[in-house]
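Problem 3 from the worked examples.
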Amino acid sequence: MTGTTSAAITKDRARQAMTRFVAAWEQGDLAAVDELFAEDVVYHAPPFPDMGRAELREFIAAFRTGFSGMHVQVQEDLVDGTTSVHRWTVEAVLSGTTDLLPGVEPTGNATTAQGNHVLHWSGDRVSEAWHFGDWLGWLTKAGALPPMPGTGA
């Protein structure tokens, strides 16, 4: 789904969109998903299945039921034509249960991770998104997974 023929996205628009998307994660403002993503968007977040807008709203809501106090800091925005890349750090606390982590009880542990979003734009909306984050580190620090041998964690 890459390789659109739309006009280039501006860096200001890409930053504004990422700021708006962060609000979905931090405050649960899921209207941002419909505002920013095309109706036929494909949102990739390995190891999770690909998602459309409805599934992405459900994913964010489920994530927020397990993790509270979420704060996302975007460190860098890069734009090239119809693609933008956003590097971020996120922190939260595993304070509840979520269907995303069946059988995992709240630990009260704070956790952090780094990652990035690669967004492919079609006009003023995102037509494809790639969400890459340190899921293993995130879950280990949260206490949902045991520490890996040799990490000193």
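Problem 4, a separate protein:
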Amino acid sequence: MGIINLEDIQPGMILDAEVKDRSGRLLLGAGSEITEKHLRIFKMWGVTEADIRGIEKEEIAVETAAEIDPLLLQEAEAQGRELFHHTDLEHPFIKELFRLFTLRMVRQKSGGDDHVS
């Protein structure tokens, strides 16, 4: 199963399972190819992740880490550890939140587009 965060989903990827909104309404069926429009709709309806065919979360993490300037990553992680110092960074939810925070900080520091929609 390749459940991937919405931030990591790219147009052209194929859904392995249906995407539904919080109330269970079908937004896009399994086997559909994702477009930019779909990603905008998912954000509007509060979808945070989707099951993507042929991709594992670990693969995305490795690819993302390879693209990041190690110095920026180190700075972002240090800043994150200050903010998250009262949390259990090994808890799966907190670990993922920390990862997303770190990526967002790296994008901001590198001047990347990181606005919240």
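Solution to problem 4. The chain has four helices and four strands. The mean pLDDT is 84.
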